[in-house]
């Protein structure tokens, strides 16, 4: 994978707080309640108008009875019973130009509210009903409605408290029924939307999160359903996109592995060829005629080989071979590293080797040689780039000692050191090279080889220049095998 794809990206793994189902429920319940309120407003207005019409109808019936009797023939007790039966204080009718009071009982001196049902609009019915519900007390009201027979209209004076109490009972019943219907409706709407939309969306979200965690796994690809709506289209398109992206990532991984393999091989092979080129330069100074004849050809061949290192090798993935470990003396390896790096004849850089006498390391000779050569070359290049004429000593120092079953080696220089911004990715490929022509692979290769030995390599803080410490533990041995070997000996 390339650098961009390796960068960690922080993403949310799931919905925070209320999920889609909770938000859907919180949205459904208020909408249902708003619908219930919108239905309640005309319902209470219609209830109020119907109750007024009932009073007018009762008043018309009482008016027919009272008007049919001869004038003065209806006893007051009967009149009061009739008014009590229709919950009225007075009943009057208008016939022609004459307005007659048919019956009255405890008629108030003044009436503050008049309700005319003959030409009442919808808005007047709504405002009138809520006005009556919001008032207090038991004020009398006069209701005017169409009359029957020859009467132009009928009037009835009644108390508003019984009517208000009836409206309260109706409102309470409406609220209870609305709550029951609202909860049932909200539940049904919620379940329907949950199974039709929320669950498929959760499935899509889970697939996206899982695919983000491991985009190269085919198990994270969503299996589309047979739905023919937009969600089914989204599932099929997401599945196709995930398959295409997984294929692209796999191909890119193979190409990245190829690039890393070519770079690693090129890095070490170029170092070896550069060392051979130094030796060929020394051969060019030999006065032997045959050497003088073949030396230029050798130099040109080495130059071509170095150039060919940049060409593409066979497609595949490079993996370091397992180390062939053995106990070896470190001093000959250090001497070979110095000669290979061209520092044996370089008087500008001081070479210091402080290694314990007879120090042996349990390691692969080739791997240890490559690690030390990479570190020494990096140190030499750092000193060459830092040669600013400040008069300071230019020195490369290699130390070695044993601490129990662990061999500790240190390679240090007196160069400018490693910038702070590059220390976080010090042993990552293509991260730490700051010089022209560098590949940024030396430390990455060294770290990989040391880790294969079960050891550790790190930068020592607080030193002049740069100091790298290598720790290689000895391989654990079985006591039984040692005893058997001694017995055979």
Automatic annotation (TrEMBL):
Is Kinase found in the keyword set? yes
Named from the GO MF annotations, one term is: ATP binding
What InterPro entries does this protein's entry cite?
Answer: 2C_sensor_his_kinase, HATPase_C_sf, HATPase_dom, His_kinase_dom, Sig_transdc_His_kin-like_C
Provide the Histidine kinase domain boundaries: 264-476
Q: Which Gene3D superfamilies match?
A: 1.10.287.130, Histidine kinase-like ATPase, C-terminal domain
Which residue ranges traverse the bilayer?
A: 24-49, 174-197
Known EC number(s)?
2.7.13.3
Q: Does the keyword Iron apply?
A: no
Q: Name one Pfam family in it.
A: HATPase_c
This one is known as: histidine kinase
Originating organism: Bradyrhizobium commune
